[in-house]
Amino acid sequence: MATPSLPPQTTKAWTFSHGGPPRTGLTLNPSHPLPPFPPTQDNPEEHIHVSVSHTALNPGELVFMTTMPMLVRSPAARAATVPGYDFVGTVVDVHAPARFKKGDEVVGFITFDHIRTTGVGGMQGRVVIPAKYAVKIPAGRTRREAAGLLLTGCTALKQVEEAGVAAGMRVLVVGAAGGIGAAATQVVVDYTEYPDLAGELTRRYGDKPFDVVIDAFGSQALFSRCAGFLKEDGVYEASGVHFDRYAAWPLLVSGFTLVWNALRPKSPWLGGTGRTWKAVSMMDPGLEFMERVVALFGEGELKVVTDSEWGFDEVLEAYDVLLSGRAKGKIIIRVDGE
Prior knowledge:
This protein is of the alpha/beta class. Helices cover 29% and strands 25% of the residues. It has two domains: 10-149 and 304-334, Medium-chain alcohol dehydrogenases, catalytic domain (Quinone Oxidoreductase, Chain A, domain 1), CATH 3.90.180.10; 151-279, NAD(P)-binding Rossmann-like Domain (Rossmann fold, 3-Layer(aba) Sandwich), CATH 3.40.50. It contains twelve helices and 14 strands. GO terms for molecular function: oxidoreductase activity. It holds the Pfam family ADH_zinc_N_2.
């Protein structure tokens, strides 16, 4: 009688154990330890063991690597953290099966808090995670098409819904070349093309202002002058406040500015812009919201725009592209399991 094969206990992975940019912090480990599978008996939650085929880079990973204090992470994450919020792959094993079975192709979004507390991200050949972080890829769609879908798709959909976008509205998307903006594009102006973008938008659209601005770049200068091209009852919906360097002080200034924007009086007489400002943070969209985004993807209403695709051993070069701020879509990494 054949002895059943044991699940692998290690996998290839990119990891970091101290703060810093990717080229000084990330290391390729060919035998990174995996969490035990099945999980301990006191954890009845459904877990899945996935062979990862692709992952995608996100700016939030750079913030996590370079500016988040190591003290906010669990001991396991401080020892070695695997970055990567987005992943796609094939389920190779299931614990407490409910939603998945072996062989299912899935797209996943590992949340910030899960990575912070466990050190488990998607930049590895295999991943063991709670099943609530994954959704089955719809029939007729491939893993490659789904790579990079969930973080940007969830953020874009949340921005569109929070801003109250409806049919017939005029919508301006700032930073539409990136992953989030590409998922929410209707009217596009390249923010890098004009030294005075606010002035250019006012000149072009001052007599026919927009109902909504979705700012995937997070330009504080543009928001400060948005009254010139955004209707008085319009909404300026940002994905945060942009900062030029991945360092503690710029991140702190960005955070204070975000709070000030939220508390800032709307009235120009009190220092406001005369327009409503909102911001979205996509730390954990929840399973139901992820399922909505995947359904839109399955129906062909949402697709992932790709800037470039890199091999697993080219991750550092891929992060160089992300750091440049000039990626025109998602940067995809081919992991190809183990």
